[in-house]
Amino acid sequence: MIVKNITTMSGFLFMRFSDNHELQILEALLFLVTYLLGSAGNFIIITITTLDPQLQSPMYYFLKHLSILDLSSLSVTVPLYIDNSLVGSGYISYGQCMLQIFFFTGFAWGEVAILTVMSYDRYVAVCLPLHYEVIMCPRKCRWAVTAVWLSSGIPGTLYVATIFSIKFCRAKIIHQFFCDVPQLLKLSCSNDHLVVMGVADFLSTMAFACFIGIIISYVHIFSTVLRMPSAESRSKVFSTCLPHLFVVSLFLSTGSFAYLNPTSDSPTALEFLFSVFYAVIPPTLNPLIYSLRNETIKSVVRKLLFSMKFAG
């Protein structure tokens, strides 16, 4: 009777990953700390790249929009899960679920697109420095960012439009910390999910093309850097690029695994771990990767903290 009620209800239930209340609280606290760290890091980057005159080059302009996407992506999924873990019933309405899918997939695609643009910007800066100001002029940068934001509406629209055709034949229990497409497909009837899988295949192909573009950009960058006589310059570029490549690879590989194998019977714990890798880790680590190795950003943050301390 309970299963029947869950099957016929309009919304969905998030399945708790532990019935132990203490573990639920611990899990919620870990997500809360991660969310606060990620939000603070992205908010600081957005603020200083907007206000500080030193950080008005194309690189920091793109970085600001990456941080906006990261902050938005975290805010779409993590706070609701924290609330459900601490005090919520775990219920999410159908409309809320569709909104979460629309915004999460949109922000995720936007992140892939802006990372591709950023890798091209670094390629021009390192390999074509004499032409940098012409190629990466303010007008072209604005067009690139506009294209990123406009294209971010496509994945969400495609997914939501195709999910409307799905009939749910199983208990509407989502074994995930947010309303994700692969989990909904596990609840669908026999062949209802094929259209959604077509969307996933198309978007995965586009994401893979972006990843190839990023790889090609960094191959050119590394080949140029290796010819530099200064060991310090080589170390500076490698220390920034390699962590960036690691996070991008982690984000795309785990996301592709989940979205291209949505109906697989992989263990719930593994699916949960993968979802953390593509939904939580990259938006949290990006501010660290782009700030800890950047002397200009660190000096601006120190100046900001010093001025706040002096004002206090």
UniProtKB/TrEMBL annotation:
Keywords: Cell membrane, G-protein coupled receptor, Membrane, Olfaction, Receptor, Sensory transduction, Transducer, Transmembrane, Transmembrane helix. It is found in: Cell membrane. Pfam families: 7tm_4. Gene3D superfamilies: Rhodopsin 7-helix transmembrane proteins (1.20.1070.10). It comes from the Eukaryota. InterPro entries: GPCR_Rhodpsn, GPCR_Rhodpsn_7TM, Olfact_rcpt, Olfactory_GPCR. One of its GO terms (molecular function) is olfactory receptor activity. It is a multi-pass membrane protein. Its main location: membrane. GO terms for cellular component: plasma membrane. The chain crosses the membrane at residues 28-49, 101-120, 141-166, 202-225, 237-260, 272-292. PANTHER family: OLFACTORY RECEPTOR (PTHR26452). Belongs to the G-protein coupled receptor 1 family. This is Olfactory receptor. It comes from Rattus norvegicus.
